[in-house]
Specification:
60 residues; mainly alpha; 2 helices; elongated
């Protein structure tokens, strides 16, 4: 019965969050998309340089 109560509490909290949600404006969406793209790009560049560094240090 405890699992049922936990599940019921989870759905109650989820419903509360769902009611507070709002659709982002176009400006907000574009800002989030740009920041996310920059983050992915930065992580990709860092990973690329790390892979090059590892190849230089350990293959030669």
């Amino acid at each position: 019965m405890r699992k049922f109560d936990e599940l019921k509490a989870f759905f109650s909290k989820s419903k509360r969050v769902w009611l507070v949600l709002k659709k982002p404006s176009r400006k907000e969406f574009e800002m989030v998309a740009k920041v996310s793209a920059m983050g992915v790009l930065i992580l990709g560049v860092i990973g690329f340089f790390i892979s090059i560094l590892i190849k230089i240090l350990f293959i030669n």
